[in-house]
Design brief:
Blueprint: H1 2-7, H2 12-24, H3 28-41, H4 46-58, H5 62-75, H6 80-92, H7 96-104, H8 114-126, H9 130-141, H10 148-161, H11 167-187
Length: 192
């Protein structure tokens, strides 16, 4: 693999494969250096940008990952994995308006990619925009891919928001939350 990176340095896949080998061998420094080299040798590779960003995130360096994710999204705007990771880092760093904007630009993809709707709901909730958060939570929670955690978060959001609602809406939200939690408990009887 090292030879391949010398023969075809612009091919990011060789660099990423070599970084994976270093990772598997527990050679963290070589892994990071290889990922940095990949970004330099193949600057137009969204995969290389994303790979180094993920490495930085895994090591608790979200702020350092941000420019790499921004570049990955710029290089491959249709890649929803890159967009989701970018929005998550923006949220982690409290750039909520930017995270929301990134996710809104992918709104047409939410049904097939409920993780985008879920992330949008989390961002909107942190912005205290319940009008936007609740429908996004609902969309994410009612898909086949929805983990239990999302449904519980949706129920919690309904309960938190019910205090600000009129009596009829309050009753409806309490009923919805109860139904969701009842289903979660029925599906996961051993999970406290």
């Amino acid at each position: 693999l090292s030879r391949a990176t010398l023969l075809e340095p612009e091919q990011s896949q060789w660099w990423l494969d070599l970084a994976t080998v270093y990772k598997d061998c527990g050679k963290h420094n070589q892994e990071v250096e290889t990922l940095k080299a990949a970004v330099i040798a193949a600057p137009s590779s969204g995969e290389a940008q994303y790979a180094i960003a993920q490495n930085l995130r895994e090591n608790g360096l979200a702020a350092e990952a941000l420019p790499y994710l921004r570049q990955a999204v710029k290089l491959q705007p249709a890649n929803l994995v890159f967009s989701l990771a970018y929005a998550q880092v923006l949220r982690e760093l409290s750039y909520l308006a930017d995270a929301r904007s990134e996710l809104e630009s992918k709104r047409k993809k939410w049904i097939a990619n409920p993780e985008l709707a879920h992330e949008y709901a989390v961002v909107a909730q942190q912005m205290d925009d319940w009008e936007a958060a609740l429908p996004a939570y609902e969309m994410a929670a009612h898909t086949d891919k929805a983990p239990t955690k999302w449904r519980v978060q949706y129920a919690e959001a309904l309960l938190k928001n019910q205090c600000e609602s009129a009596d009829d809406a309050k009753t409806l939200r309490l009923s919805q939350a109860y139904d969701i939690l009842e289903r979660v408990c029925a599906e996961n009887p051993d999970d406290p």
